[in-house]
Amino acid sequence: MNKLFHPDPIRGKLVLVQGLRALAALMVVVHHAQNEAAALAGRTGTDFVARHGLPWPAGVDIFFVISGFIIVHAAAPLYGRPGARCRFAAHRIARLVPLYWLVTGLYLAVGLAAPALLSGEGGAPDVARTLASFLFWPMARPDGAVLPLYGLGWTLNYEMAFYALFALGLGFSRRGAVAWLAGALVLLVLAGRLMPAPPVPLAFWSDPIVLEFALGAGLALLRAEGLRLGSPVRIALAATGLFGLATNASLSAEPVARLLGWGLPAAFLVAAAVLGRDRPEAMRGGIAAWALGAAERLGDASYALYLIHPFVLRAVREGLLRTGLAPLLGPWPSLVVMVALTLPAALLVHRLVERPLTRLVRRGLDPAPAVEVSKSAVTPER
Where in the numbering of this chain does the Acyltransferase domain appear (predicted)? Predict the structure, then answer.
């Protein structure tokens, strides 16, 4: 057998992927923390200039490529099997919905109790927008932005649509499912571009950003076919990905530009993580092993970190202002404090809220298994 190709048994979590999840979540946190630091500077009369060494919002693009990879990789025992669609749907709903609904409900409660804290974030909620938010249905806000009640949920509106498309392809083999998924996503993008005035949901779901799921799915297929790269090639891929992101830090919001400038570099990073040994020899001891373990734990909690960090950032910002610490610290040290406090908060929410909720809902939704699958194969982290 060619040295580049090896069998691909599923053996639990992919540690480097978890590390990438941690990076992606932290990028989003830093992006929003800079917004909070700017607001803090405005209220204390100090100067603050945001830094863009990396395009912080591109953490979402890394997440999307990872999602495409993980779903295809972890569904290995389900392709072409009876009951696969129901089992997949049950586990995806249990994984994403409970915490998102809880956070959206909390956001709604805060908005009703203290509207000033959420001023300028889409206007007062109404029944239609609230229902659309809970059902992952894209709907325009009064200001025209297609965002759910809790703004971060826009990514989950894409995720759930991706899961629905992927579930339809589970009746095929893995190759067939990936081909179906890639073809369906391309057709979706073309439909949105060719239709003169597409309805809001189609206009939203046909954004080229959805092709990042296809990039991740393609990487999963390459791994499943046995492609493995040596460390020098993987390091080169990772360096290319980081360089691509850094050189596109000030990219415009044009959708195709985002796909090329952020999506492709994100795919290089994910390729570096998945197309080789999951735990390289250089990371099996000392500080490197400790750092990888810490990144893995934060990656496990990345969904909680993504969803709760705006609450923590806003609460810490207000705390610093009301205690008089903000002018003493200044914007950048305040930003460090805000980001640092999101991490233990996310780890606690992951352990005490997210995991118990996921187990509870999964037990209620998971049908009698029609196929025997390993736990790690059907419960991929986000």
Answer: 19-350
